């Protein structure tokens, strides 16, 4: 017997197919969102760990004698001729030593509209697209640049004289005792994950090489457009995942009577 076909089965199948497609699309989108969250979380952990590793090397007791030597991390920047300058180097995991003056650079405001970066050469700045490995590990995921300088920002001294001299030796005349005066040292560790950014290698290299880590513009200097940004701000503007840790140390030479 012939029966009239109304096409209801086809309509039901198409509706079910549409529902399955929507559910599948939502599931894929949710999975991608979860993957992005996990990737970002992993990236932040890598950035934090590498910045911490650089800071730990700076304050390592085993490296204290080397770091306070005349050409060491702290010894070099606390001389009268170098106060206000940033000693910059790239923390390279493949290097045999954490710091080497032969692969360090000075960044400083001298005059004009942009900082000068070539007093010690430009080998200290982290570089992408280089035959040399400037990454902190063999995974080539994270790059960390370190800078050290004497804290020359005296704005905190306006709070009171107790803040202005809080880092000085108490009960000791440094000149009479023939010891070094106390200095506040700023250490900045800036880490990035270049692979998680669409910024060009040249733009990232310029952020590391052309900008100060701590921007303290001298009186009478008008910076060129964009040059008043720190390394971290420059990288953030490019959309590069970045983690910056700043640590202040009170470098004091103790005097003991025996």
UniProtKB/TrEMBL annotation:
Domain (Type 4 fimbrial biogenesis protein PilX N-terminal) ranges: 7-54
InterPro entries: PilX_N_dom
Transmembrane stretches, start-end: 7-28
Pfam families tied to this protein: PilX_N
The entry's keywords: Membrane, Transmembrane, Transmembrane helix
Protein name, as recorded: Pilus assembly protein PilX
Naturally occurring in which organism (per UniProt): Acinetobacter terrae
